[in-house]
Amino acid sequence: MKSKKNTKTAPSMDKWLQEAKSDPEALNEGMYLVHNGIVRQTSRAKARQGVETDNVTGMDFDYNAAKVDQAVAQTKKMAGIFHVRVWLNQGQLEVGEDIMYVLIGGDIRPHTIDALQFLVAKIKNECVKEIEKT
Questions:
Q1: Which residues, at least 6 apart from 96, have a Cβ–Cβ distance to it below 8 Å?
Q2: N or C: which end of the chain has fewer CB within 10 A?
Q3: For 58-96, how does the pLDDT look when each residue is reduced to its tens digit (9 = 90+)?
């Protein structure tokens, strides 16, 4: 991955929600969930396994757009899901900067929660490359 400074602007969640609610399928939706991943100072190893590591100063972040599109398409096929939208940052990110936004609109809470967990896991595990900087 060739590193470059982040030049992307994070989306407006107010605008995303407004657009989602104006879609004809919004009449089927009973909830929206938003995931906002950001670069944290604590390393992944420390956050997940409690392993002592140096603090993170930033991250190189990139993604495979085709794989993200496939993950979104899979999520849209899940029961009760009517709206899926994803934004991913790219480049050299600093602590506190946005990594991703995911918006899911679904009919009921269990369907919407399942879809959000599925999509975020799919993106994190199969679609992105993250290199923490210490």
A1: 38, 39
A2: C
A3: 999 999 999 999 999 999 999 999 999 999 999 999 999
Q: What is the 8-class DSSP label of residue 32?
A: E
Q: Is 123 helix (H, G, I), strand (E, B) or coil?
A: helix
- Please list the residues that pair with 5 across neighbouring strands: 92
Q: Give the phi and the psi of residue 29 in degrees, each rounded to 5.
A: -95, 135
First to last CA, the chain: 18
Q: What is the pTM of this model?
A: 0.87
User: Do 123 and 75 form a contact (C-beta atoms < 8 A)?
Assistant: no
Burial group, residue 119, by CB count within 10 angstroms (0-12, 13-18, 19+): buried
Amino acid at 52: E
DSSP assignment of 58-119: EEEEEE-HHHHHHHHHHHHTSTTEEEEEEEE--EEEETT-EEEEEEEEESSHHHHHHHHHHH
CA-to-CA dists, residue 69 to 75, 77, 84, 90, 131, angstroms: 10, 13, 11, 16, 22
